[in-house]
Amino acid sequence: MIKRMMTMNRGDFKILDQKIYGRPLVYLDNAATTQKPQVVIDTLKAYYETINSNIHRGVHYLSQRATDEFEAAREAVRRFINARHAYEIVFTRGATDSMNLVAASFGRTFLHEGDEIVVSKMEHHANIVPWQFLCEDRGCVLKVLPFNEKGELCIEQLDQLITPKTKIVAVTQVSNSLGTVNPVKAIIEIAHKKGVPVLLDGAQAVSHCKVDVQALDCEFYCFSGHKMYAPMGIGVMYGKEEWLNKMKPYQGGGEMIKQVTFAKTTYNDLPFKFEAGTPSVGDAMGLKAAIEYMESIGIENIAAYEKELLDYAEKRLSSIEGLRIYGQAAQKAAIVSFNIDKIHPSDIGAIIDKLGVAVRTGHHCTQPIMDHFGIPGTVRASFAIYNDKKEIDDLYEAVYRAKNMLL
Ligand code: PLP
Fold this sequence. Notes:
By secondary structure, the chain is α/β, with parallel strands linked by helices. Helices cover 41% and strands 17% of the residues.
Protein backbone atom coordinates (compact mmCIF):
# COMPACT_ATOMS: atom_id res chain seq x y z
CA MET A 1 0.00 0.00 0.00
CA ILE A 2 2.71 2.44 1.09
CA LYS A 3 4.90 1.22 -1.75
CA ARG A 4 2.24 1.90 -4.38
CA MET A 5 1.64 5.38 -3.06
CA MET A 6 5.34 6.18 -3.13
CA THR A 7 5.82 4.93 -6.67
CA MET A 8 3.04 7.25 -7.77
CA ASN A 9 4.77 10.16 -6.08
CA ARG A 10 7.86 9.80 -8.21
CA GLY A 11 5.96 11.22 -11.16
CA ASP A 12 5.50 14.45 -9.21
CA PHE A 13 9.25 15.08 -9.42
CA LYS A 14 10.19 15.66 -13.07
CA ILE A 15 13.83 16.39 -12.22
CA LEU A 16 14.30 12.72 -11.29
CA ASP A 17 13.34 11.67 -14.78
CA GLN A 18 16.69 12.48 -16.38
CA LYS A 19 19.97 10.83 -17.20
CA ILE A 20 23.31 11.85 -15.68
CA TYR A 21 26.37 10.75 -17.69
CA GLY A 22 23.98 8.60 -19.71
CA ARG A 23 22.58 6.81 -16.65
CA PRO A 24 19.30 7.30 -14.80
CA LEU A 25 19.71 9.80 -11.97
CA VAL A 26 19.69 8.22 -8.52
CA TYR A 27 19.26 11.16 -6.18
CA LEU A 28 20.32 10.25 -2.63
CA ASP A 29 21.34 13.67 -1.32
CA ASN A 30 18.03 14.47 0.32
CA ALA A 31 19.47 15.53 3.67
CA ALA A 32 21.17 18.37 1.80
CA THR A 33 18.00 19.32 -0.05
CA THR A 34 14.96 17.45 -1.33
CA GLN A 35 13.56 17.80 -4.81
CA LYS A 36 10.35 19.78 -5.23
CA PRO A 37 7.05 18.26 -6.35
CA GLN A 38 5.28 19.83 -9.32
CA VAL A 39 2.64 21.39 -7.07
CA VAL A 40 5.35 23.45 -5.32
CA ILE A 41 6.88 24.55 -8.63
CA ASP A 42 3.41 25.44 -9.96
CA THR A 43 2.67 27.45 -6.81
CA LEU A 44 5.82 29.52 -7.26
CA LYS A 45 5.07 30.10 -10.93
CA ALA A 46 1.48 31.09 -10.21
CA TYR A 47 2.61 33.52 -7.52
CA TYR A 48 4.96 35.37 -9.88
CA GLU A 49 2.52 35.22 -12.79
CA THR A 50 -0.54 36.42 -10.91
CA ILE A 51 -0.11 38.08 -7.51
CA ASN A 52 3.52 39.10 -7.05
CA SER A 53 3.42 42.17 -4.85
CA ASN A 54 4.89 43.45 -1.62
CA ILE A 55 2.84 42.56 1.42
CA HIS A 56 1.31 44.13 4.55
CA ARG A 57 1.90 47.71 3.45
CA GLY A 58 -0.21 47.90 0.30
CA VAL A 59 -3.86 48.88 -0.04
CA HIS A 60 -4.14 47.57 -3.59
CA TYR A 61 -5.65 44.26 -4.63
CA LEU A 62 -2.45 42.36 -5.43
CA SER A 63 -0.80 43.39 -2.20
CA GLN A 64 -3.80 42.22 -0.24
CA ARG A 65 -3.92 38.91 -2.11
CA ALA A 66 -0.20 38.33 -1.49
CA THR A 67 -0.61 39.27 2.19
CA ASP A 68 -3.50 36.82 2.58
CA GLU A 69 -1.47 34.02 0.96
CA PHE A 70 1.58 34.79 3.11
CA GLU A 71 -0.50 34.68 6.29
CA ALA A 72 -2.24 31.50 5.10
CA ALA A 73 1.23 29.96 4.78
CA ARG A 74 1.96 30.97 8.36
CA GLU A 75 -1.25 29.28 9.47
CA ALA A 76 -0.30 26.13 7.53
CA VAL A 77 3.05 26.01 9.37
CA ARG A 78 1.26 26.54 12.69
CA ARG A 79 -0.97 23.57 11.97
CA PHE A 80 1.93 21.46 10.68
CA ILE A 81 3.95 21.75 13.89
CA ASN A 82 0.89 22.28 16.11
CA ALA A 83 1.96 25.63 17.52
CA ARG A 84 -0.61 27.31 19.74
CA HIS A 85 -0.64 30.60 17.80
CA ALA A 86 0.19 31.62 14.22
CA TYR A 87 2.08 34.63 15.59
CA GLU A 88 4.58 32.24 17.17
CA ILE A 89 5.70 31.32 13.63
CA VAL A 90 8.44 33.61 12.29
CA PHE A 91 9.47 33.22 8.66
CA THR A 92 13.22 33.22 8.03
CA ARG A 93 15.56 32.21 5.18
CA GLY A 94 16.16 28.75 6.65
CA ALA A 95 17.29 26.83 9.71
CA THR A 96 20.65 28.63 9.81
CA ASP A 97 18.92 31.99 9.75
CA SER A 98 16.46 30.81 12.43
CA MET A 99 19.19 29.68 14.82
CA ASN A 100 21.19 32.86 14.27
CA LEU A 101 18.02 34.78 15.03
CA VAL A 102 17.44 32.95 18.33
CA ALA A 103 21.09 33.12 19.39
CA ALA A 104 21.41 36.82 18.61
CA SER A 105 18.09 37.88 20.02
CA PHE A 106 18.08 35.58 23.06
CA GLY A 107 21.72 36.48 23.66
CA ARG A 108 21.15 40.26 23.50
CA THR A 109 18.28 39.89 25.94
CA PHE A 110 19.33 37.28 28.47
CA LEU A 111 23.03 36.35 28.30
CA HIS A 112 25.81 37.82 30.40
CA GLU A 113 29.42 37.04 31.17
CA GLY A 114 29.88 33.58 32.64
CA ASP A 115 26.47 32.30 31.49
CA GLU A 116 26.47 28.83 29.97
CA ILE A 117 24.98 27.43 26.77
CA VAL A 118 24.67 23.66 26.33
CA VAL A 119 24.84 22.12 22.86
CA SER A 120 25.59 18.55 21.80
CA LYS A 121 28.64 17.18 20.05
CA MET A 122 26.49 16.14 17.07
CA GLU A 123 25.24 19.61 16.16
CA HIS A 124 25.37 21.02 12.67
CA HIS A 125 27.69 24.05 12.59
CA ALA A 126 24.55 26.20 12.33
CA ASN A 127 23.76 25.27 15.94
CA ILE A 128 27.32 25.79 17.18
CA VAL A 129 28.81 28.87 15.58
CA PRO A 130 26.00 31.38 16.42
CA TRP A 131 26.45 30.39 20.10
CA GLN A 132 30.22 30.78 19.80
CA PHE A 133 29.64 34.37 18.63
CA LEU A 134 27.95 34.97 21.96
CA CYS A 135 30.75 33.31 23.86
CA GLU A 136 33.21 35.67 22.14
CA ASP A 137 31.12 38.81 22.48
CA ARG A 138 29.64 38.29 25.93
CA GLY A 139 32.07 35.98 27.66
CA CYS A 140 29.63 33.06 27.79
CA VAL A 141 30.72 29.43 28.03
CA LEU A 142 29.77 26.69 25.56
CA LYS A 143 29.32 23.25 27.13
CA VAL A 144 29.03 20.11 25.07
CA LEU A 145 26.94 16.98 25.62
CA PRO A 146 28.86 14.00 24.16
CA PHE A 147 27.57 10.97 22.25
CA ASN A 148 28.56 7.31 22.48
CA GLU A 149 30.08 5.02 19.84
CA LYS A 150 26.63 4.19 18.45
CA GLY A 151 26.02 7.89 17.91
CA GLU A 152 23.49 8.26 20.73
CA LEU A 153 23.61 11.27 23.03
CA CYS A 154 24.81 10.53 26.57
CA ILE A 155 21.72 12.08 28.04
CA GLU A 156 22.50 10.67 31.47
CA GLN A 157 25.21 13.38 31.60
CA LEU A 158 22.84 16.23 30.78
CA ASP A 159 21.56 16.81 34.29
CA GLN A 160 25.11 17.37 35.53
CA LEU A 161 26.03 19.55 32.58
CA ILE A 162 23.20 21.97 33.35
CA THR A 163 24.20 24.29 36.19
CA PRO A 164 22.56 27.37 37.71
CA LYS A 165 24.49 29.37 35.08
CA THR A 166 22.95 27.50 32.12
CA LYS A 167 20.66 29.79 30.15
CA ILE A 168 19.68 27.58 27.20
CA VAL A 169 20.06 24.02 25.83
CA ALA A 170 20.25 23.83 22.02
CA VAL A 171 20.20 20.38 20.39
CA THR A 172 19.30 18.77 17.12
CA GLN A 173 16.29 16.49 16.89
CA VAL A 174 17.88 14.41 14.13
CA SER A 175 21.59 14.31 13.30
CA ASN A 176 22.31 15.11 9.65
CA SER A 177 25.52 13.03 9.72
CA LEU A 178 24.61 10.06 11.88
CA GLY A 179 20.86 9.91 11.34
CA THR A 180 20.32 9.62 15.11
CA VAL A 181 16.85 10.59 16.29
CA ASN A 182 17.52 12.14 19.67
CA PRO A 183 15.24 11.67 22.70
CA VAL A 184 14.34 15.35 22.65
CA LYS A 185 11.27 14.99 24.86
CA ALA A 186 13.45 13.57 27.66
CA ILE A 187 16.09 16.29 27.06
CA ILE A 188 13.43 18.98 27.37
CA GLU A 189 12.09 17.46 30.59
CA ILE A 190 15.58 17.40 32.14
CA ALA A 191 16.23 21.02 31.13
CA HIS A 192 12.81 22.22 32.27
CA LYS A 193 13.26 20.66 35.72
CA LYS A 194 16.08 23.16 36.10
CA GLY A 195 14.10 26.00 34.53
CA VAL A 196 16.20 26.07 31.35
CA PRO A 197 14.59 26.69 27.92
CA VAL A 198 15.34 24.40 24.96
CA LEU A 199 15.93 25.11 21.28
CA LEU A 200 15.47 22.21 18.88
CA ASP A 201 17.12 22.16 15.47
CA GLY A 202 14.42 20.42 13.44
CA ALA A 203 16.12 20.78 10.03
CA GLN A 204 16.42 17.00 9.54
CA ALA A 205 13.30 16.06 11.51
CA VAL A 206 10.39 17.82 9.86
CA SER A 207 10.40 15.78 6.67
CA HIS A 208 10.69 12.46 8.50
CA CYS A 209 8.44 12.57 11.55
CA LYS A 210 5.40 14.28 12.99
CA VAL A 211 6.41 17.35 14.98
CA ASP A 212 4.18 18.72 17.72
CA VAL A 213 5.83 21.66 19.46
CA GLN A 214 3.17 21.79 22.16
CA ALA A 215 3.60 18.12 23.04
CA LEU A 216 7.40 18.51 22.94
CA ASP A 217 7.10 21.72 24.98
CA CYS A 218 10.28 23.17 23.43
CA GLU A 219 10.78 26.93 23.61
CA PHE A 220 12.20 27.26 20.08
CA TYR A 221 11.99 25.05 16.99
CA CYS A 222 13.96 25.85 13.81
CA PHE A 223 13.81 24.36 10.32
CA SER A 224 14.29 24.97 6.58
CA GLY A 225 11.69 24.57 3.88
CA HIS A 226 14.06 23.19 1.25
CA LYS A 227 14.72 19.96 3.14
CA MET A 228 10.98 19.19 3.18
CA TYR A 229 10.04 19.55 -0.50
CA ALA A 230 9.59 23.35 -0.31
CA PRO A 231 11.62 26.03 -2.12
CA MET A 232 15.03 27.23 -0.98
CA GLY A 233 15.06 30.57 0.79
CA ILE A 234 12.29 29.99 3.31
CA GLY A 235 12.53 28.68 6.85
CA VAL A 236 10.81 28.86 10.18
CA MET A 237 11.66 29.92 13.70
CA TYR A 238 8.94 28.86 16.11
CA GLY A 239 9.14 30.42 19.55
CA LYS A 240 6.82 30.32 22.53
CA GLU A 241 4.93 33.60 22.81
CA GLU A 242 6.18 34.43 26.30
CA TRP A 243 9.82 34.15 25.20
CA LEU A 244 9.41 35.98 21.91
CA ASN A 245 7.63 38.83 23.66
CA LYS A 246 10.55 39.29 26.04
CA MET A 247 13.27 39.02 23.37
CA LYS A 248 14.79 42.03 21.65
CA PRO A 249 14.50 42.09 17.84
CA TYR A 250 17.15 40.49 15.67
CA GLN A 251 17.35 42.75 12.62
CA GLY A 252 16.11 46.30 12.29
CA GLY A 253 14.27 47.74 9.30
CA GLY A 254 10.85 47.95 7.74
CA GLU A 255 7.91 45.94 9.06
CA MET A 256 9.44 45.22 12.49
CA ILE A 257 8.64 48.65 13.92
CA LYS A 258 5.55 50.40 15.30
CA GLN A 259 7.02 53.88 15.27
CA VAL A 260 10.40 55.32 14.41
CA THR A 261 11.71 58.67 15.55
CA PHE A 262 15.33 59.68 15.93
CA ALA A 263 14.74 59.77 19.67
CA LYS A 264 13.21 56.29 20.02
CA THR A 265 11.84 53.37 18.05
CA THR A 266 9.08 51.08 19.24
CA TYR A 267 8.69 47.56 17.89
CA ASN A 268 5.87 45.79 16.13
CA ASP A 269 3.84 42.92 17.60
CA LEU A 270 4.66 39.26 17.02
CA PRO A 271 5.61 37.83 14.62
CA PHE A 272 6.48 41.00 12.68
CA LYS A 273 8.94 42.19 15.33
CA PHE A 274 11.26 39.46 14.00
CA GLU A 275 10.52 39.84 10.28
CA ALA A 276 12.46 42.93 9.19
CA GLY A 277 12.32 43.75 5.47
CA THR A 278 10.49 42.15 2.57
CA PRO A 279 9.93 38.43 3.14
CA SER A 280 9.99 35.69 0.54
CA VAL A 281 6.26 35.54 -0.14
CA GLY A 282 6.28 33.11 -3.05
CA ASP A 283 8.56 30.75 -1.14
CA ALA A 284 6.25 30.85 1.88
CA MET A 285 3.40 29.86 -0.44
CA GLY A 286 5.62 27.08 -1.78
CA LEU A 287 6.21 25.92 1.79
CA LYS A 288 2.47 25.74 2.34
CA ALA A 289 2.09 23.68 -0.83
CA ALA A 290 4.86 21.34 0.36
CA ILE A 291 3.21 20.93 3.76
CA GLU A 292 -0.09 20.08 2.11
CA TYR A 293 1.69 17.66 -0.20
CA MET A 294 3.31 15.84 2.73
CA GLU A 295 0.06 15.85 4.66
CA SER A 296 -1.76 14.30 1.70
CA ILE A 297 0.66 11.36 1.85
CA GLY A 298 0.65 11.26 5.64
CA ILE A 299 3.77 11.86 7.75
CA GLU A 300 3.38 8.43 9.37
CA ASN A 301 3.35 6.78 5.93
CA ILE A 302 6.46 8.74 4.95
CA ALA A 303 8.22 7.68 8.15
CA ALA A 304 7.28 4.02 7.70
CA TYR A 305 8.37 3.96 4.06
CA GLU A 306 11.69 5.69 4.75
CA LYS A 307 12.38 3.25 7.59
CA GLU A 308 11.96 0.42 5.09
CA LEU A 309 14.48 2.11 2.77
CA LEU A 310 16.92 2.74 5.62
CA ASP A 311 16.84 -0.87 6.83
CA TYR A 312 17.34 -2.14 3.29
CA ALA A 313 20.22 0.27 2.59
CA GLU A 314 22.02 -0.57 5.83
CA LYS A 315 21.65 -4.28 5.16
CA ARG A 316 22.96 -4.07 1.61
CA LEU A 317 25.81 -1.66 2.28
CA SER A 318 27.08 -3.46 5.36
CA SER A 319 27.56 -6.60 3.25
CA ILE A 320 30.46 -4.80 1.52
CA GLU A 321 33.69 -5.88 3.20
CA GLY A 322 35.55 -3.06 4.93
CA LEU A 323 32.51 -0.76 4.93
CA ARG A 324 31.73 0.92 8.23
CA ILE A 325 28.48 2.70 8.99
CA TYR A 326 28.78 5.69 11.35
CA GLY A 327 25.67 6.07 13.48
CA GLN A 328 24.06 2.88 14.75
CA ALA A 329 21.52 4.44 17.07
CA ALA A 330 18.41 2.47 17.95
CA GLN A 331 16.29 5.32 16.53
CA LYS A 332 17.45 6.59 13.14
CA ALA A 333 16.10 8.71 10.31
CA ALA A 334 16.73 7.77 6.67
CA ILE A 335 20.42 8.69 6.59
CA VAL A 336 23.38 6.31 6.14
CA SER A 337 26.91 7.63 6.63
CA PHE A 338 29.75 5.31 5.78
CA ASN A 339 33.37 4.86 4.80
CA ILE A 340 35.35 2.03 3.30
CA ASP A 341 38.69 1.08 4.83
CA LYS A 342 41.66 2.87 3.24
CA ILE A 343 39.50 4.89 0.81
CA HIS A 344 38.83 8.62 1.01
CA PRO A 345 35.08 9.36 1.00
CA SER A 346 35.36 11.95 -1.79
CA ASP A 347 36.91 9.35 -4.10
CA ILE A 348 33.88 7.13 -3.63
CA GLY A 349 31.55 10.10 -4.16
CA ALA A 350 33.31 11.15 -7.37
CA ILE A 351 33.21 7.67 -8.89
CA ILE A 352 29.62 6.87 -8.04
CA ASP A 353 28.57 10.27 -9.38
CA LYS A 354 29.82 9.13 -12.80
CA LEU A 355 27.51 6.14 -12.38
CA GLY A 356 24.54 8.46 -11.87
CA VAL A 357 24.37 8.18 -8.07
CA ALA A 358 24.26 11.50 -6.19
CA VAL A 359 25.40 11.35 -2.58
CA ARG A 360 27.18 13.84 -0.33
CA THR A 361 30.74 13.41 0.89
CA GLY A 362 32.69 15.42 3.44
CA HIS A 363 32.10 16.56 7.00
CA HIS A 364 28.47 17.57 6.40
CA CYS A 365 28.99 20.74 8.49
CA THR A 366 29.56 18.57 11.57
CA GLN A 367 33.32 18.64 12.01
CA PRO A 368 33.17 17.72 15.74
CA ILE A 369 31.54 14.41 14.74
CA MET A 370 34.31 13.72 12.24
CA ASP A 371 36.95 14.63 14.84
CA HIS A 372 35.29 12.23 17.28
CA PHE A 373 35.74 9.35 14.84
CA GLY A 374 39.12 10.62 13.61
CA ILE A 375 38.01 10.76 9.98
CA PRO A 376 38.02 13.52 7.34
CA GLY A 377 34.42 12.85 6.38
CA THR A 378 31.94 10.22 5.28
CA VAL A 379 29.89 9.24 2.28
CA ARG A 380 26.27 10.05 3.11
CA ALA A 381 23.24 8.62 1.36
CA SER A 382 19.92 10.04 2.49
CA PHE A 383 16.47 8.99 1.35
CA ALA A 384 13.14 10.62 0.58
CA ILE A 385 9.64 9.57 -0.41
CA TYR A 386 10.46 9.23 -4.11
CA ASN A 387 13.39 6.83 -3.65
CA ASP A 388 12.96 3.09 -3.95
CA LYS A 389 14.82 -0.15 -3.29
CA LYS A 390 16.02 -0.39 -6.87
CA GLU A 391 17.93 2.85 -6.33
CA ILE A 392 19.48 1.40 -3.20
CA ASP A 393 20.61 -1.56 -5.32
CA ASP A 394 22.13 0.99 -7.73
CA LEU A 395 23.92 2.64 -4.81
CA TYR A 396 25.23 -0.73 -3.65
CA GLU A 397 26.48 -1.67 -7.13
CA ALA A 398 28.14 1.72 -7.60
CA VAL A 399 29.89 1.64 -4.22
CA TYR A 400 31.01 -1.92 -4.84
CA ARG A 401 32.47 -0.91 -8.20
CA ALA A 402 34.17 2.14 -6.72
CA LYS A 403 35.77 0.00 -4.04
CA ASN A 404 37.13 -2.42 -6.61
CA MET A 405 38.51 0.44 -8.69
CA LEU A 406 40.18 2.17 -5.75
CA LEU A 407 41.75 -0.75 -3.89
N1 PLP B 1 20.76 21.82 11.00
C1 PLP B 1 20.87 20.62 10.46
C2 PLP B 1 20.73 19.41 11.33
C3 PLP B 1 21.11 20.49 9.08
O1 PLP B 1 21.22 19.28 8.53
C4 PLP B 1 21.25 21.67 8.31
C5 PLP B 1 21.57 21.58 6.87
O2 PLP B 1 22.12 20.61 6.39
C6 PLP B 1 21.11 22.90 8.94
C7 PLP B 1 20.86 22.95 10.29
C8 PLP B 1 21.21 24.17 8.16
O3 PLP B 1 20.17 24.25 7.25
P1 PLP B 1 20.15 25.39 6.13
O4 PLP B 1 21.42 25.28 5.39
O5 PLP B 1 18.95 25.05 5.31
O6 PLP B 1 19.99 26.70 6.84
